[in-house]
Design a protein that fits this description.
single chain; 165 residues; mainly beta; five-stranded mixed sheet; four-stranded antiparallel sheet; elongated
Length: 165
């Protein structure tokens, strides 16, 4: 993957953008909090929210030691950050976890998908979930959200999918 290393930080919900802003001020670091599009019933518009509330992803070509030093210098005492580690002292995500990151656009947003009901199951015809029908375990028509059977950060993925009326 281009000699890039991926890291995941856990922080306080709603502080993801603050953490990203600080980390992105460092050379050799790109930090983001993945977003998802969803249909907001009240405003009847597509909006965005954090897909994994409280998580920040970091991409860097810097070594683990260099990245750890940047994480430890985080200046805001009121904002807790914790580096998730999947092996003893190695937090870089492996390629098997990165496959799902490819579903996001260049702004790290999981865009709305569109589909149709076929034999009481949703079939996605357009968007990042196209060809992923087998991963959809539940569809909430009222909120236009699909629950996906994906194992990533021990999170349940609820993503925007809409079916034209």
């Amino acid at each position: 993957m281009n000699n890039e290393h991926w890291y995941v930080l856990l922080t306080i919900r709603s502080k993801e953008e603050e953490v990203c802003k600080y980390l992105n001020e460092n050379d050799g670091i790109y930090a983001f909090s993945p977003k998802m599009e969803f249909y907001h019933r009240v405003s009847k518009q597509i909006q965005q929210r954090a897909l994994f509330g409280g998580y920040v992803f970091v991409v860097s070509k810097l070594s683990q030691v260099e990245v750890d030093a940047i994480f430890k210098k985080f200046p805001l005492q009121s904002v807790f950050i914790h580096e998730l580690k999947y092996e003893e002292d190695i937090s870089a995500l492996t390629d098997r976890y990165l496959i799902r990151i490819e579903m996001f656009d260049d702004k790290k947003v999981l865009r709305m998908s569109y589909g149709e009901l076929v034999n009481k199951k949703i079939h996605v015809t357009q968007g990042p979930l196209k060809n992923m029908d087998d991963y959809i375990v539940k569809y909430d028509k009222h909120n236009r959200l699909a629950t996906l059977n994906l194992n990533f950060l021990n999170q349940i993925w609820k993503v925007g999918v809409t079916i034209p009326e």
